[in-house]
């Protein structure tokens, strides 16, 4: 049994390698090598799920140790004393066995309009904002979540979900950076607002492991005009340049980071950071918000590393795309997919011959 399991892990290591040079390739056009890896990864999951060592494989998805400070993004918890998790997913131990992994490429034409989807109601209390924290993977703005002061409801959700934190993903340059894509289009960055189901679960950590435990709002960032509210975050970044640094950040309302358009896509997925639990209802806003190039450049001044370590810039902190598998992406808005073709003019009545 152990020998067979090791062999399968070696196969996984050959199929999955998210090197720095490979990650951005998905945003630069059709990448046959990436597609092949996705197909092989999908087949490997099927093999592992059917194998006698399936339970043993799942053990490798669970954090073995917890840091002194719980990390609501989970990156800092998935590590042992002698091995730190690399942000670009180079370890074969991180290959998930599920079929609802995130992020995905949203195909506009294949999304299904669901008239039963309700508007999403957002109610955030600015006083619940606590601090900004560099956790070694992104910077998190965390909130006090012991009560229902900052919640979302409606949309695809059956219960109220409390805001835990929000964070961003971004690229080394403006050509890529978002985790999700739309018709294979990348955005320079993506905002994630992470909420948990306090009706069914007692705390965030339990909710993050179970189905319908989390709800994450995703907002794309595109280049454009200067964003006054994002600048408030940018101004704190020099204070948290290194990993594990934290600064107080009070009275901030994240709803100022939302686009004005209420339209969204939704699907069932997973955390995009370890332990990759399939506990997330994703709500991806259709309309991006605009930020200036120099504001994104300030994101890139952060470091993955602690003080005293060799500096490594915090860039390309996104997970590669995952297969859609059997899932359906629903939209809250009615749409007709229009091909990029010029319509032929209809003949006038005078042109019609008898």
From TrEMBL:
Domain Alpha-carbonic anhydrase, first and last residues per copy: 74-333
Keywords, sorted A to Z: Lyase, Metal-binding, Zinc
Cell cycle recorded as keyword: no
Family matches, as Pfam families: Carb_anhydrase
InterPro entries attached to this UniProt entry: CA_dom, CA_dom_sf, Carbonic_anhydrase_a-class, Carbonic_anhydrase_a-class_CS
Catalytic reactions of this protein: hydrogencarbonate + H(+) = CO2 + H2O
Gene Ontology biological process terms, A to Z: response to bacterium
Gene Ontology, cellular component aspect: cytoplasm; mitochondrion
Coiled coil: none
Top-rank lineage group of the source organism: Eukaryota
Enzyme class, broadest EC rank: lyase
Gene3D superfamilies noted in UniProt: Alpha carbonic anhydrase
GO molecular function, one term: carbonate dehydratase activity
EC number: 4.2.1.1
Known cofactor(s): Zn(2+)
PANTHER family per record: CARBONIC ANHYDRASE, CARBONIC ANHYDRASE 5B, MITOCHONDRIAL-RELATED
Role this protein plays: Reversible hydration of carbon dioxide.
Protein family according to the UniProt entry: Belongs to the alpha-carbonic anhydrase family.
Protein name (Swiss-Prot/TrEMBL): Carbonic anhydrase
Gene from which the chain derives: CA5B
